[in-house]
Amino acid sequence: MTTARQPLPAHLSRAGFTDARRAERLLDELLASMPGDPDAEDLTDALSRVADPDEALLGAVRLVEADPEVGLVLHEAGTARDRVLAVLGGSTALADHLVRHPEHVAVLAQTHPFGRGRALPEPGELTDRLVRAVEGLTDREGMDALRVAYRRELLLIAAADLVSEDPVELLPDVAAALADLACAALEAAVVLARAQTEGQEHCRFSVIGMGKTGGRELNYISDVDVVFLVGPAGEGDDEALAVGSRLATAVMRICSQSTGEGALWQVDAALRPEGKNGPLVRSLESHRGYYQRWASTWEFQALLKARHAAGDEELSREWLDLVQPMVWEASAREGFVENVQSMRRRVEEHVPPAEAPWQLKLGPGGLRDIEFSVQLLQLVHGRTDEELHSGTTLEALTALRDGGYVGRDDAGDLDAAYRFLRVLEHRIQLHRLRRTHLMPSTEADQRRLGRSLGERRDAAASLVQRWRAQQREVRRLHERLFYRPLLAAVAKLTSDEVRLSPEAARVRLSALGFRDPAGAMRHLESLTDGVSRRATIQRHLLPVMLGWFADGADPDAGLLAFRRISDTLGTTHWYLKMLRDEGSAAERLAHVLATSRYAVELLIKAPESVSLLGEATGLRPVSREALGARMLAAAERHDDPQDAFTGIRSVRAKELLRLVLADLVGEIDQPALRSALTELTDELLAAALGVATRAVVGDGQPAASMLIVGVGRLGGRELGYASDADLMFVYEPLEGAEGAAEQASEIIAALRKGLSGNGPDPTLELDASLRPEGKSGPLVRSFESYSVYYQRWSAGWESQALLRARPLAGDDDLAQRFTDLIQPLRWPDDGIDQAAVRDIRRLKARMEGERLPRGADPRTHFKLGLGGLTDVEWVVQLTQLQHAHEHDGLRTTGTLAALNAAVEASLISEEDASVLRRSWTLASRLRDAGVLWRGRPVESVPSDSREAEGVSRILGRPPGHGSELAEEWRRTARRCRHVVEQLLYGGPLHGTATGRLPGSGARPS
């Protein structure tokens, strides 16, 4: 027969006890041992507020057993009881200490243990109490007394921390108190060491706190990093060094050795010169020599947190005065920033894989990410800003925020994350007073940790979720701040250059090649004048950006453009923050502004588009579908047609600027650029056709279907910045509709007007001169009219023009029918005969004499000159007209695609094709570079040396190579012309009666 199971005490489970039956038994035992008539419900409620109610209750029972008087403290509700229970529920190690020393409960019960209004002790008080505890005692007695006194103070600090309503806010004060307590223990250890060291009176001796001890941000249990310093009290360095070495060894033993009262912590002197391989103690002069000659980058980073900890304070001050100036000049060393960055990566790589997911300190998104980011920013900018000279992470972070080196939001996020991660670390270590930086992996430990931070419902899961979110945010900010290109650039400047003083700025402007240093100074003064945050950030950015402007061909224009954009955007919340924080945005902007007037004009019209430089995918061309959707949305937002046209042109302006920026910074290759420019124009014309149709037809019924056909470079998907849009306009009357011709003409007129004139984007010239009958023919024709014309009167040049015809906007069915209509003309079934070939040759020869602009040099003109774009295109087009019926690859509207197909079909040799390809590509790139540099079309290599240099820089050539550009083009064009004369103007053609060109690139005899 089984006994019925008694129901669990539900109220104890709700109070946070995990073993309610055991808790009920222990609670009865505790209540029975307490005086008077204790309130069980009140005590249970008090226990429910601690991190681990089960451990707190067990600790209370043990404590009352050790000293029944403790029951008086637990009987009365109030601060005293809360402190005791919080310690018992937060630290089994301190609970054990209280059981060994129940007299310390009385210390916790003091109303104001640190004085009225003070949550934590003053540093001097801690030192006085610990030194008094050991004075006059022998070595062993002193070591025990030091440990007891130390833990007495640790209890008070832990209690204040654990009962705090906001432990995250209190964290800096707790960490500072722990560091001060460590220094007090070191001072007491020095007193004990001197008492047992012979000859100590002949030695000045001090202990320098390093790491978290030096920064007043120590953990509950951590190695205490130190450097030992000695000096002679009279004469005799050698004797002082020997005595100092014995003192240092004694101090380390006194703190680290385990006694009946345990140990304090390890004293770690590995940050001394030469590390563990170096002498334990050194003199001032020895330190001076080492840091001036041999010290590594990491050693200066370590010195950032150095401060006096114990011993001879005057000696410490002399040492600090010696080394601190070196700390703030360390970033000027060659490769300093890169060394610090690589050191952080090495630290991360050495984390054991099994620990990495649980690391609070060393892993990605951990404390080291924040500390390294802050320290690197301090060391780079601290050369010229003494406000950054703090060894305490949160103080330094605040100074970086106030100085404009870190954004307010970023600084706030890092501050909150650092406090939270440190509190986690503290609570984990406090539980057993063990040195660890690992997040617990068991649910029970996570639950206790979560409850200690105020989590109650699903404490374990909530805490881990919160920690992981902080981890991701810290990593994101670390990667943005720690690896920002601005840091390495600032580190390479001299202190005078960083300060940007007027005299230093004038000298530097002249040295950098600014043509008008006085004008540049006015821009600098305007940008940096005042005490606003905007001016402050500009003062950080401009010393570096001046060098980046100077890397462009026109630094004066770059600085002027930067001022104009900054005057417009400087008060926005994102602009300067982006330049300071987002990767290479500032360097890219400086390069663009000093390199391209075309880009400057686009940016001045839409300065907010600077944000593209800071976005991860900002310079990636958007898809054609996205372009179409954006233009459609822009058009539909407006009822007025002119506003709708402005809307779609604004979309084009932004996307054109995106492509220009990508081109200038090398984020897009030339084939992709030409394709993207073509798609942008296609979608603009499609959207414009829709707006124009809506404007003309309104709510009525359309009388005609419309089609826009692209020809020339647009049809070939080969647009450049200066390209016109060569077009033909087609309509077809809808059944039963009247006035189709008039309506179609009105629609095209509205389209041309909407896309002409000043707007947010550069005007797209619409050229319809390749339509039937050229400029003499009607602008808009019906499909039937095109059909009749091409069947009866079409000229040879029109068939050639149709080689690159491509429907790009309008009715799909009409587009297909038009394509079917022109196929036989551009790709005749039997090719073209020799008479047609002769006509093409004669026409080309006549054009060379008639179309070249007056005064233009045929040797240098990119389009119509000898070896220019037209030469290459006519060779390719003649090959298509002759052979497209045999080779499907030639049935393409693209010049280079058709040239490659001709090589594959053995119609042109690869050797000749390479020459043609090189000339066509270079001419296209030179035209585009000319537009980028001057802001308007350029059809030949500039004769002005400065302009030639500007074009050369855009092509990616090193500085000083602009003078070579003209000769390079002439050389390329001469070679191309030689090939063109052989392939286009060669002797009698060989092959079939259709006049096919010889295969394999053979030259006609």
UniProtKB/TrEMBL annotation:
Region: Adenylyl removase; residue ranges are 1-486
Q: Name one Pfam family in it.
A: GlnD_UR_UTase
Report which superkingdom the organism of origin falls in: Bacteria
Is Metal-binding among this UniProt entry's keywords? no
Write the record's keywords in alphabetical order, separated by commas: ATP-binding, Magnesium, Multifunctional enzyme, Nucleotide-binding, Nucleotidyltransferase, Transferase
Q: Which cofactor does it need?
A: Mg(2+)
- Cite the residue spans of the region called Adenylyl transferase: 494-1005
CDD domains to which the protein is assigned, alphabetical: NT_GlnE_GlnD_like
Q: Which residues form the PII-uridylyltransferase/Glutamine-synthetase adenylyltransferase domain?
A: 342-482, 859-983
EC assignment = 2.7.7.89, 2.7.7.42
Where is the region Disordered? 939-963
The protein's enzyme class: transferase
Its recorded reaction(s) are: [glutamine synthetase]-O(4)-(5'-adenylyl)-L-tyrosine + phosphate = [glutamine synthetase]-L-tyrosine + ADP; [glutamine synthetase]-L-tyrosine + ATP = [glutamine synthetase]-O(4)-(5'-adenylyl)-L-tyrosine + diphosphate
Where in this chain does the record put each Glutamate-ammonia ligase adenylyltransferase repeated domain? Answer: 83-318, 587-819
Molecular functions (GO terms) = [glutamate-ammonia-ligase] adenylyltransferase activity; [glutamine synthetase]-adenylyl-L-tyrosine phosphorylase activity
Q: What does this protein do?
A: Involved in the regulation of glutamine synthetase GlnA, a key enzyme in the process to assimilate ammonia. When cellular nitrogen levels are high, the C-terminal adenylyl transferase (AT) inactivates GlnA by covalent transfer of an adenylyl group from ATP to specific tyrosine residue of GlnA, thus reducing its activity. Conversely, when nitrogen levels are low, the N-terminal adenylyl removase (AR) activates GlnA by removing the adenylyl group by phosphorolysis, increasing its activity.
Q: Which family does it belong to?
A: Belongs to the GlnE family.
Instruction: Spell out the NCBIfam families in the cross-references.
Output: PRK14109.1
* Name assigned to this protein: Bifunctional glutamine synthetase adenylyltransferase/adenylyl-removing enzyme
